[in-house]
Design a protein that fits this description.
two-stranded antiparallel ribbon, elongated, 26 helices, mainly alpha
């Protein structure tokens, strides 16, 4: 049977609720009559007895009104109640928040002179008993001498005014205590040292329009900037102006950035900020040209545009390339980065060489579109088209000869492959001018002149063309997904964990299982992000035109696929 139980009749009656921590922490040390006063006050509140007065409470507990007031004042010292009004007398019941030990009762008479001095310093408002108790804690628990704490309070009042709040004073006092400065001499020396940097801080604040007086936190930062980071006053002012900063914490971050990039002189800072602002502006322009939305330009600056600038590409050049990329379906920073790295590897960096490249590419694309039209095709250009054009030019065929071949290829099942066959035959026979095509202008004549050994090459090219087109579409879909910052980050984590899993499966089965769980979560996150981007995951896998052979021409048994037989029949028709 439990130590304490209640009858059923008791359980059905109403009760007054009291915090458990009041019973366990406060009640053992409080004056017994004060406990009565507190419990009766809680009872009145929970009962909703709004009409009760101090007189009613005093009468119920057989006390005088003055004595009842004394007990409420006593409870206020423990922060169990707060006297919110002396006339009429009103009390607010507080949370019994001192959970971790016996509450401490301070004797006001011990601090009589101190409390008078504090009230004289903070003359803009009346100081409550609770606030005095906070000062007593600073004196007793943090070890401040009374004169030392008075000096700190006086400093705070001079800085913030006579209506200063308690929390600011506590913050400053605790910062002193953290440095072990709790004596009057220590506080005086620290404030004196602070005063020595105050003029510089005032000049800084005036120069950049900071509308406040320097405080001890500002002083700490200023000493860091000048002593630890090595900035001179004019450099600090220049940094604040260049970064357009009116906050010391933000200025601290800016100076850390300059320190990291070894920019200390005023001219170095101005040059750095000018370049940085210009690169940011260029990044924004590039995003607009590509049609990319940026919630935060920082990663694009660091991972792409800054890299391109460091490779030697001018701002104008990057803008031109961004427009070129957009017009050619490379609508992401990742796609543009791939192009620029390819150009860089070929030594195409200077504005003139890049412009020549763009002009040549535009001319080639225009020619290819016209050739496709001559063949009777209306599809978009694919990478294989450009590769074919490069080969035809290596074979020394003019544009005029290409159009002659395109006319003959019109209506064929695979016109571009047919053009390759025709040009290959002409190359073998040394036919490079239209005037030498007298006997070979008709499709039938060309078909008859095709060497038998050219068929194998045409089959290989046909299936390469099909595979390449399918794989190019898959690569483009993958690149579009990877250009998304969120999906790209998730995919990178998946790849890293997959590598860890491969090793763990060999050496640590327990770890491997945990990694599988993480991978499953990441895969689900990746699928969710793809759904938000409206990208089909299936598009990452090439969709071959023939599901039997996968656009190789041969089935799983190594025999010629039906699609190959059909191609050969059409090719020879």
């Amino acid at each position: 049977m439990p130590f304490i139980s209640v009858a059923d009749e008791v359980a059905k009656k109403s009760f007054t609720q009291v915090e458990n921590k009041f019973i366990t922490k406060y009640m053992p040390v409080l004056d017994p009559t004060a406990v009565k006063v507190y419990l009766f006050a809680v009872y009145l509140y929970q009962r909703g007895a709004a009409a009760y007065t101090l007189s009613d409470l005093a009468e119920a507990l057989n006390l005088s009104e003055d004595k009842a007031k004394d007990y409420f004042t006593y409870l206020e010292e423990f922060e169990l109640v707060s006297i919110v009004s002396a006339s009429p007398f009103e009390v607010k019941i507080l949370d019994a928040e001192n959970v971790y030990g016996t509450p401490k009762k301070f004797k006001p008479e011990k601090y009589a002179d101190f409390t008078k001095s504090v009230q004289n310093i903070i003359s803009g408002r009346m100081i409550s008993t609770n606030e005095f108790r906070e000062y007593f804690i600073l004196l007793d628990e943090y070890g401040f001498a009374q004169d030392a704490l008075l000096m700190i309070i006086n400093y705070c009042v001079n800085l913030k005014g006579t209506d200063i709040r308690l929390q600011y004073i506590k913050k400053v006092a605790k910062s002193f205590a953290e440095e072990g400065v709790t004596t009057a001499k220590g506080v005086e020396d620290k404030l004196s040292a602070y005063t020595s940097s105050t003029p510089a801080l005032i000049r800084l604040f005036n120069a950049v329009g900071i509308k406040k007086k320097p405080d001890i936190d500002d002083d700490k930062l200023y000493k860091k900037w000048t002593d630890a980071l090595g900035f001179e006053e004019n450099a600090i002012v220049a940094a604040a102006k260049q970064f357009k900063i009116k906050d010391c914490l933000k200025l601290d971050a800016a100076l850390e950035e300059l320190y990291k990039n070894r920019r200390f002189d005023v001219k170095e800072i101005e040059s750095y900020c000018k370049a940085k602002n210009s690169v940011v502006a260029l990044t924004v322009k590039t995003a607009k040209s590509l049609g990319v939305y940026m919630s935060d330009y920082t990663p694009y600056v660091e991972n792409y545009v800054n890299v391109w600038c460091n490779m030697g590409y001018s701002f104008d050049c990057i803008e031109n390339l961004s427009r070129y990329c957009f017009m050619n379906g490379r609508n992401s920073f990742a796609d543009m980065d791939t192009l620029i790295k390819a150009l860089y590897s070929d030594g195409i960096v200077a504005d003139e060489s890049v412009n020549e490249y763009i002009e040549k590419q535009n001319a080639d694309e225009k020619l290819l579109k016209e050739l496709l039209a001559a063949c009777g095709l209306t599809r978009k250009l694919i990478p294989w088209d450009k590769s074919s054009l490069e080969n035809w030019r290596k074979w020394n065929f003019s544009d005029e000869m290409l159009f002659e071949a395109a006319k003959l290829a019109a209506g064929k099942a695979n016109p571009m492959a047919y053009i390759n066959g025709i040009l290959s035959s002409w190359k073998k026979d040394g036919i490079f001018e239209p005037s030498k095509l007298a006997d070979t202008r008709t499709p039938s004549a060309v078909a008859q002149s095709k060497p038998a050994d050219n068929l194998h090459a045409q089959i290989e090219q046909h299936y390469y063309d099909l595979r390449h087109a399918a794989e190019a579409r898959a690569e483009k879909a993958t690149a579009a997904a990877m250009s998304d910052e969120i999906y790209g980050k998730i995919k990178k984590e998946i790849n890293e964990l997959s590598i860890q899993l491969a090793f763990a499966e060999i050496s640590d089965p327990g770890k491997a299982e945990k990694l599988r769980v993480k991978l499953n979560v990441l895969e689900a996150d990746a699928d969710k992000r793809l759904a938000e981007l409206k990208i089909d995951k299936a598009d990452f896998t090439p969709r071959y035109s023939c599901k039997i052979c996968g656009d190789t021409g041969y089935d799983k048994n190594g025999r010629s696929c039906e699609c190959m037989k059909k191609f050969i029949a059409e090719f020879n028709s």
